[in-house]
């Protein structure tokens, strides 16, 4: 893999962990203690992108989501209705709403609820 080979200097030669710069003279592996001389890294260009999702995942923060079923101004939010049969009680219509739970380049998750028996299920689109 060409990309991995081009970036190998950033990783520990023993266990593969990303190296940390603890001084101007060397980079050290936090896991096993392997050291790489800073002279090996001079002149190498590195780039990476950090997204908001990466930060939330690293800090173990749940995404901020407003529940559609929560009352707003003492009024219940109305959900959209689709003419699909409930798999549990066979009621002819289901209420639904969507949320973007995965990364932006993936589809939304559709949450369904039967107004008759309250059966809930979801589908990733």
Overview of the molecule:
With 125 residues, this protein is an alpha+beta fold. It folds into 2 domains: 47 residues, no CATH class; 45 residues, N-terminal domain of TfIIb, CATH 2.20.25.10. 10% of the residues lie in helices and 23% in strands. The strands form 2 sheets. The protein has a 4-stranded antiparallel beta sheet with strand order 4-5-6-7, with no helix packed on it. It has a 3-stranded antiparallel beta sheet with strand order 1-2-3, with no helix packed on it. Strand 6 and strand 7 form a beta hairpin. The protein starts with a helix and ends with a strand. The N terminus is likely disordered.
In which order are the strands of the major sheet placed?
A: 4-5-6-7
Please work out how many helical segments DSSP would assign: 2
Q: In what range is the share of β-strand residues?
A: 15-25%
Percent of residues in helices: 10-25%
What is the helix/strand order?
Answer: HEEEHEEEE
The main sheet comes to: 4 strands, antiparallel
In angstroms, what separates the terminal alpha carbons? 31 Å
Number of domains: 2
Q: Measured on Cα atoms, how large is the radius of gyration?
A: 25 Å
Number of strands: 7
Structural class from helices and strands? alpha+beta
Overall mean pLDDT score?
77
Shape: rod-shaped
Stretches with pLDDT under 50, minimum 5 residues: 1-6
Subcellular location: Nucleus, Nucleolus
InterPro entries: Rpa12/Rpb9/Rpc10/TFS, Zn_ribbon_RPA12_C, Znf_TFIIS
Binding site for Zn(2+) 1: 12, 15, 29, 32
Organism: Canna indica
């Amino acid at each position: 893999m060409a990309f991995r080979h081009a970036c190998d200097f950033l990783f520990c030669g023993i266990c593969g962990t990303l190296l940390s710069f603890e001084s101007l003279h060397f980079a050290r592996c936090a896991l096993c203690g392997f050291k790489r001389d800073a002279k090996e890294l001079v002149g190498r260009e590195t780039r990476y992108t950090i997204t908001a999702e990466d930060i939330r995942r690293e800090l173990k923060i749940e995404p901020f989501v407003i529940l559609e079923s929560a009352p707003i101004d003492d009024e219940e939010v109305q959900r959209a209705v689709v003419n699909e049969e409930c798999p549990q009680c066979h009621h002819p219509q289901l209420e639904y709403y969507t949320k973007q739970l995965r990364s932006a380049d993936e589809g939304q998750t559709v949450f369904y609820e039967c107004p008759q028996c309250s059966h809930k299920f979801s589908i990733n689109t």
